Amino acid sequence: MSEVDWEQQRAFLAVLETGSLSGAARRLNVAQPTVRTRIFALEAALGTALFTRSPGGLTPTERGMALHEHARAMALASDAFVRTASAAPDEVAGTVRITASEVIAVEVLPAILRAVQREHPRLVIALSPSNRNEDVLRREADVAVRMVPPKQEALVARRIGAVNLGVHAHPDYLAGRPLPTRFEELAGHRLIGPERDSAMLRQVQEANFPVRIADFSFRAESDHAQLAAIRAGLGIGVCQVPIGVRDGLVRLLPDFELPLETWVVCHEDLRGLARVRTVFDALVNGLRAYLG
């Protein structure tokens, strides 16, 4: 087997995850022929085809799929390597990558992080809004805000409290309409929710809000898009109670309340880094203030 270099593996991962040479080129910020050359060189070095070509793009072969997690692990390790080397351990400088749910990341964290970066101007924040629990142990993120209790070992975790979800609507939507106080009174109202079944939807249904996907007149898989629709007056939906209070939304159905346990976690090996410790503590304090 010929020698394989990291740039070839980066090209492989980018093509696998974007589905095309052009998408990989954009991700890597290189020319498309460069990506093609690296893929051909990698296939030659491994002695196997990694993709099949078709008019619709590139489809990974069975061997290519088998290599996906290995390439991804290397990419995560490379990113973590760069972040770790971005500043000395005792400096509040360099890069800290944070992952949090869409709504928390977009609606809550920026105000908390503003104060941290004002105090530490050499600190760089990489924020990943994602409802997928990115793996802190695999160093997908340095610090994570999670809405479920952490189960993995080797993590430092702080419980923040429970973020309550409630049923809300904008005053403009409710103008001229009677305020519903029970689920049965929602008949005839426009409801906002997801496109598909999910664990969160089932939690909502079990918390005295037995809504069905067919009931939603506005549907979006993005929780943040649903929140935007509530704020725009498109109908009635579920959102975090502190956001509803902040944005002047009207809370409906007082019997409905769904608490989401909220935690801040990081890998125990990173807690000793000044930049990670500073961000971790700021998130803990800021989120506790958000919950009141």
TrEMBL record:
<keyword id="KW-0805">Transcription regulation</keyword>
<dbReference type="GO" id="GO:0006351">
    <property type="term" value="P:DNA-templated transcription"/>
</dbReference>
<dbReference type="Pfam" id="PF00126">
    <property type="entry name" value="HTH_1"/>
</dbReference>
<dbReference type="InterPro" id="IPR005119">
    <property type="entry name" value="LysR_subst-bd"/>
</dbReference>
<feature type="domain" description="HTH lysR-type">
    <location>
        <begin position="4"/>
        <end position="61"/>
    </location>
</feature>
<dbReference type="InterPro" id="IPR036390">
    <property type="entry name" value="WH_DNA-bd_sf"/>
</dbReference>
<protein>
    <submittedName>
        <fullName>DNA-binding transcriptional LysR family regulator</fullName>
    </submittedName>
</protein>
<dbReference type="GO" id="GO:0043565">
    <property type="term" value="F:sequence-specific DNA binding"/>
</dbReference>
<keyword id="KW-0238">DNA-binding</keyword>
<dbReference type="InterPro" id="IPR036388">
    <property type="entry name" value="WH-like_DNA-bd_sf"/>
</dbReference>
<keyword id="KW-0804">Transcription</keyword>
<dbReference type="InterPro" id="IPR058163">
    <property type="entry name" value="LysR-type_TF_proteobact-type"/>
</dbReference>
<dbReference type="Pfam" id="PF03466">
    <property type="entry name" value="LysR_substrate"/>
</dbReference>
<dbReference type="InterPro" id="IPR000847">
    <property type="entry name" value="LysR_HTH_N"/>
</dbReference>
<comment type="similarity">
    <text>Belongs to the LysR transcriptional regulatory family.</text>
</comment>
<dbReference type="GO" id="GO:0003700">
    <property type="term" value="F:DNA-binding transcription factor activity"/>
</dbReference>
